[in-house]
Amino acid sequence: MNAIDGTDRHVKTDDRPPPSLLAIVLDTNPHAWAHLCSTLPLSSAISNLLVFINAHLASGNTNEVAVIASHTHKAEWLYPTPKPPLPARSRNGTSSTNGSNGTSSEDSNVPENPNKYRQFAVVENAILSNVGKLLNSTTESDLASTPTTQVSGALSLALSYIAKSALLHSPVDSLGTDNPLSALADSETTHQARETLTSRILIVSVSGDLANQYIPVMNSIFAAQRKRIPIDILKLAGDTVLLQQASDATGGVYMKPERPEGLLQYLMMAFLPDATARRSLVMPSAGGVDFRAACFCHRKVVDIGFVCSVCLSIFCTPELPSNLCLTCGSYLSLRSAHTATPALIPRKKKKKKRVGGTDSATPGPGTPAGSGTPVHT
Amino acid sequence: MSASSSQALEYLELLPAQTHRKLYEQPSTALAVFRCMLPHLAKTIVMAMLYMTSPFTASDLDAWFRHDSKRERDKAISVLEQLHVVSARQDTPKHISYELNKGFGRSLRQALTGSGTHRSFGVPAQSTEERASIHFLDQYAQRQWENMLFYMVGSTVGLATANLGLDVGEGTKTLLRSGDFVRVTHGRVSITRTGFTFVLQEANAQVWSLLIVYLKHAPQLGMSETDVLSFLFMLGSLELGQEYTISTLSQTQVQMLEDLSAFGIVYRSSSTSSTFYPTRLATTLTSESGALSFSSTAGTAEAGGSLSSSGTSGARGSASKGYIIIETNYRLYAYTASLLQIAVLSLFTNLTTRFPNLVSGKLTKQSITRAVKLGISSSQILSYLTANAHPQMQKNNPVLPPTVMDQIRLWEYEGERVEPTNGYLMKEFASDHEYKDLVAYAESLGVLVWKNEGRRMLFVERLEQISLYLSKKKGER
């Protein structure tokens, strides 16, 4: 009789890990890949990535994958292919629609290959044809217009796809009769109670300097943080402050391989383990993270910035037009703060303060910096 | 890894190294073993080693794993070693490194990249004949499989007169008997304890249990186990609704096709046809998503719509599966019109009312103890109820009402207070250190059942790993 207690109530201790959704954002910026072509051309990077995707699909029978290209002027779905009748919506550079499961439509035209697992063939076929389509449709004027890449758009696409898949996986939704809005409202609670889908985002980044997309990327990062979606960064070239922060804030993996040729081994070892496996592994992280922010007015990374006291927008200069905050429009006179030299607290003192702060259980080191207008991070 | 594949794993682990080596020559087999036999962490380890040029040293592996997950790591490595996927090599006394089985690594790489000319993922037939639709295949598989299940259950619950179209093949009957699922006394079929375990499993696990019995009897029929196994794994990687040619199959495998079509795992338009179709039972052998569900209500229609696309099949599978609602007052409602499901339910439920699409009844002490006397355990009942819970019930956590779960267990415990475990008692250790070391190892493997520190004794479920460990330690000294 003693064997009965509440603890062993879960008869079927389901040791099978929940399905894992991997959303890959592939930076297809031609400028950056041109620099890399001596060590790692785009074609071999994609073939490595395909092996990695297959490995991911093989790691769990219900694992899913979504691939998004972040191109110079737009973010485009590579897999799953969006459904053909595309309502043309070109806003903010993200022209593709919601990534619905268009798998069935392309199933039929995958060539039969007895040497290949069919599920792999379907994904590969879709990705390769979509990459080809994307590259062929890129015009010279597109390339000339900007040297960077639309990471922010791709990130938001990935996040919205993950949110949708999570809804589809939650038991409430599978009934189909529920009001979709109510499911949306309590999706977070059900999702956390029973892990139905673990998602993560992998950004394969080659271009640097994303400061001009600081705000949208930061917003995506916070959304990911809230939804507990780790953002893994594989930085093949260039360096951006932003992406380091992304992996740090969401608890993802950050890697900047010294030898990009060995891409596949990096992928297999560091990026393949999903959330379940990561619990028992030591994962590489960014180490020293550069937490500097970009200003809202010129999109530059700043060491010293000026913060609006109402909306917390960051500006690099106190010379605001007519003393109004550019974001929220409230009155903001920074001139006075500037004339008095910013009170930089000496390092030693700062340390002491930090100790005192934790003792008295005040919000910690952020407080003294936040009270004065000039911020030194 | 789920319940369904764990019994297949147990079977695989017991095979000799030579069989493993032969199996891993086929990329489809290597991929299937990887996909559904290995525990999650083992997959991670294999993938990390797959493209590694040098062996993985044990110290590197230690560094990769967190300190507090040593136990999981040992478990993963031990499974890998038993399946001969990974082998440990002792370079110097204190330096151990792990190496991936060469054949396995090559096959898995081929499977991932789709290279080579092994043609192990099935050769599609180019036929002009009219193809069998997926819906038809589902119906066929369901009919064959349910027939067989009903053959087992029907007579016990007194529904034998109800006719499902009893055309269970003689070969199937023999197999069920030899697997000790049913016993025939005086021409009357009665189900055994193993039979109950079988019936209460989910479809996928059922298929595996039956196939393992089939495998064990393959040598008697003059078939090679390796051939049979690799064919099964190949079946798991085929595409539903696609016709495949039998020209590349070996003699054994063609012979197998006949038996498999009797189970409903493959479909052939005639026994001499040169092509075959895998049904959903076959294509889900190595995966759990979208497994064929045996409810005659909306199940098949929905399942038919979801191709084996990895996309939403998981969600749909759960939606079409559940049909049982249990209330905290032990009342049970099952939305089903299938005779088989009703028969299974009536094994442990006191059913009272039947409507066109619903049966209702109550779980009583009497009905549960009756089931226990027949050889059904409470955990079997609970896992069956959980697995088939209605989507509305699945919103709860735990799925079943706790009172019902506890009470069912209590009812069972009233009858049996001693629980037997087969295993090995180890005693007479030379030193306390030696004893503690072995206890720790056994615990990390998860085979330790009981220990007594004062008398330096321990009881383990399985001995293979332990004896390996002991002989390894002896060698060190």
From TrEMBL, chain A:
The keyword Membrane is annotated on this UniProt entry: no
- Output the Gene Ontology terms for molecular function: zinc ion binding
Q: Which InterPro entries match?
A: TFIIH_Tfb4/GTF2H3, vWFA_dom_sf
Nucleus recorded as keyword? yes
* Pfam families named among the record's database cross-references: Tfb4 (PF03850)
Q: Name a single GO cellular component.
A: transcription factor TFIIH holo complex
Q: Provide the alphabetized UniProt keywords.
A: DNA damage, DNA repair, Metal-binding, Nucleus, Transcription, Transcription regulation, Zinc, Zinc-finger
**Function comment:** Component of the general transcription and DNA repair factor IIH (TFIIH) core complex, which is involved in general and transcription-coupled nucleotide excision repair (NER) of damaged DNA and, when complexed to TFIIK, in RNA transcription by RNA polymerase II. In NER, TFIIH acts by opening DNA around the lesion to allow the excision of the damaged oligonucleotide and its replacement by a new DNA fragment. In transcription, TFIIH has an essential role in transcription initiation.
The entry sums up its family as follows: Belongs to the TFB4 family.
**Assembly:** Component of the 7-subunit TFIIH core complex composed of XPB/SSL2, XPD/RAD3, SSL1, TFB1, TFB2, TFB4 and TFB5, which is active in NER. The core complex associates with the 3-subunit CTD-kinase module TFIIK composed of CCL1, KIN28 and TFB3 to form the 10-subunit holoenzyme (holo-TFIIH) active in transcription.
Query: What is the protein name for this chain?
Result: General transcription and DNA repair factor IIH subunit TFB4
Automatic annotation (TrEMBL), chain B:
Q: Which residues form the Transcription factor Tfb2 C-terminal domain?
A: 406-469
UniProt KW keywords: DNA damage, DNA repair, Nucleus, Transcription, Transcription regulation
User: What is the originating organism of this protein?
Assistant: Clohesyomyces aquaticus
Query: Taxonomically, which superkingdom?
Result: Eukaryota
Cell compartments where the protein resides: Nucleus
Q: Which Pfam families match?
A: Tfb2, Tfb2_C
Quote the function comment for this protein: Component of the general transcription and DNA repair factor IIH (TFIIH) core complex, which is involved in general and transcription-coupled nucleotide excision repair (NER) of damaged DNA and, when complexed to TFIIK, in RNA transcription by RNA polymerase II. In NER, TFIIH acts by opening DNA around the lesion to allow the excision of the damaged oligonucleotide and its replacement by a new DNA fragment. In transcription, TFIIH has an essential role in transcription initiation.
Q: Name one GO cellular component term.
A: transcription factor TFIIH holo complex
Give a GO molecular function annotation for the protein: ATPase activator activity
Record's InterPro entries? Answer: Tfb2_C (IPR040662), TFIIH_p52/Tfb2 (IPR004598)
* Name this protein carries in UniProt: RNA polymerase II transcription factor B subunit 2
The yes or no answer to whether the keyword Magnesium is present is no
The family note in this entry says: Belongs to the TFB2 family.
PANTHER family per the UniProt record, alphabetical:
GENERAL TRANSCRIPTION FACTOR IIH SUBUNIT 4, TFIIH, POLYPEPTIDE 4
Gene3D superfamilies reported in the protein's UniProt record: 3.30.70.2610
Q: Name one GO biological process term.
A: nucleotide-excision repair
